[in-house]
Specification:
Length: about 140
């Protein structure tokens, strides 16, 4: 008679071998990183163009004069409306903001004065005042 052997068969392995799955995932990740296009993020800014012909902005007070001919003067120098916008924007970046004085001629056209006042308002000038109002006493 034969004696049964005491050697038992080992139980089956129920765990999944994850090493090949990790290798495949790393290969896919590397391929994904290589194939995505490089993203260039740009922030679009509307920067005003430099104005080499614009007059200098004083740090204490500036004066806009409107002559009877309709010419606009910034600190006694002629400026266009575009240049006026530029120097007003520059002046409002100064801390503390300088005062702005408006001196229209007594016989200046109302349209021109109104346009300049509109530019001043659109540029959010904080310290603003009229000077030379005594010239209107006779009107």
């Amino acid at each position: 008679m034969r004696v049964a052997s005491a050697v038992a068969t080992p139980p089956p392995i129920l765990d999944l071998n994850t090493t090949p799955l990790i290798d495949v995932m790393l290969v896919l990740l590397a391929m994904f990183v290589i194939t995505i296009p490089i993203q260039t993020h740009a922030v679009k800014l509307d920067v005003p163009p430099p104005c080499p012909t614009c007059p200098y902005v004083r740090h204490v007070s500036n004066e806009i004069a409107i002559q009877s001919s309709g010419q606009i003067l910034w600190n006694e120098g002629p400026v266009s409306q575009d240049q006026l916008r530029f120097v007003l924007r520059q002046s409002q970046r100064i801390t503390p903001a300088p005062e702005l004085h408006l001196r229209p001629a007594p016989d200046a056209r109302y349209e021109t004065v109104d346009e300049v006042l509109g530019v001043i308002k659109r540029e959010h000038v904080r310290k603003f005042g009229f000077i030379g109002n005594e010239a209107y006493a006779s009107y």
